């Protein structure tokens, strides 16, 4: 059975704003959602994202605490952690980092259809979709979906879809017209300044 994925505007906006706020730093977080069966396979609906770190992006105690809190929050919202996302400190780097492979692999132990997204920072100002999906292959490695035998990501017949196709343009408008990224905070931000709201709500 095949697995398809949809990304909600809420999840996309958070990933996008996280990357835009820290364009010269690596950032990461986790994806929350639900899974259901369809006539053709499984559907994973990515409904939210939890922005975790922009300083301690390795497998640090802060990462462990963040993952635990994210799992608790997901459970309280009747969701689960279904994937991982990251952006590099280089806007043209769309490689899933080693730490990303490890975190995504850990998520996959409790959610076998886990997905990983790497943000293509070169598309931040374009209004185009900027997520590069990575899938876990039968050869036990994470690789870009576009390098697999699957249909290229984000086309009309792709297993990867935005629930609202206008989301990337709306995300760009949030930055250009409202400076929404300045008000955005991740777990690192909250640890440094508790007046910045926690991302777990």
From TrEMBL:
Pfam families on file: UPF0172
Domain of life (superkingdom): Eukaryota
Gene Ontology CC, one term: EMC complex
Domain MPN: from-to ranges: 5-140
Membership in a protein family: Belongs to the EMC8/EMC9 family.
PANTHER family: ER MEMBRANE PROTEIN COMPLEX, ER MEMBRANE PROTEIN COMPLEX SUBUNIT 8_9 HOMOLOG
Protein name: MPN domain-containing protein
């Amino acid at each position: 059975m095949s697995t398809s994925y949809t990304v909600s505007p809420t999840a996309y906006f958070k990933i996008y704003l996280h990357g835009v706020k820290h364009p010269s730093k690596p950032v990461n977080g986790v994806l929350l959602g639900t899974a259901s069966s369809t006539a053709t396979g499984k559907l994973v609906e990515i409904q939210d994202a939890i922005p975790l770190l922009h300083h301690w992006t390795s497998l640090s105690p802060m990462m462990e605490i963040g993952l635990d809190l994210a799992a608790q929050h997901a459970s309280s919202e009747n969701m689960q952690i279904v994937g991982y996302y990251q952006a590099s400190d280089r806007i043209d780097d769309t490689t899933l980092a080693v730490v990303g492979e490890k975190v995504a692999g850990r998520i996959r132990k409790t959610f076998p259809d886990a997905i990983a997204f790497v943000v293509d920072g070169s598309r931040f100002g374009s209004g185009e979709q900027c997520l590069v999906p990575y899938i876990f292959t039968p050869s036990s490695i994470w690789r870009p979906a576009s390098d697999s035998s699957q249909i290229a990501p984000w086309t009309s017949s792709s297993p990867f879809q935005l629930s609202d196709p206008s989301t990337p343009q709306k995300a760009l408008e949030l930055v250009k017209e409202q400076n929404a990224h300045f008000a955005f905070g991740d777990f690192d931000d909250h640890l440094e300044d508790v007046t910045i709201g926690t991302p777990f709500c």
